[in-house]
Write a structure and sequence with these properties.
Microbial ribonuclease fold; three-stranded antiparallel sheet; alpha+beta; 2 helices; three-stranded mixed sheet; globular
Length: 113
């Protein structure tokens, strides 16, 4: 049994669930600077590498790669968006931090983008 944040955990599964809930609560507290959709982002392709960009007010960019989205269970190609995870359903949203400042945007992915 381990003690963490005033909670006792009987097994690693309950600890993992607690950690997931805590992370989710922290993300909910973050207020995005803007809400955007896939169509608002620019795409840069280098070979098989695809990255999505959106300009921040500071002059840098919010960016996320297709492989990062894939790790979240969101599979994209040039014509469609598919979900391959039981924990994600469309529409889905992802908070993306700016590369330079503390701002974040909320990217909404609805499958029809």
């Amino acid at each position: 049994m381990c003690r963490r944040h005033g909670k006792y955990f009987l097994d690693s599964m309950s600890r993992a669930n607690y950690d997931k809930e805590l992370q989710s609560m922290r993300q909910e507290l973050e207020v995005p600077a803007n809400e955007i959709e896939l169509g608002d982002m620019s795409v840069e392709s280098v070979g098989d590498f695809e990255e999505l960009f959106y300009e921040c007010t500071c002059g840098d960019y919010f960016s996320i790669t297709w492989s990062e989205l894939k790790e979240m269970g969101i599979i994209m190609d040039k014509e469609s968006v598919e979900v391959h995870s039981s924990t994600v359903s469309l529409p889905a949203s992802v908070l993306i931090p700016c590369g330079s400042c503390s701002l974040k945007v909320c990217l909404t992915i609805d499958g029809s983008s």
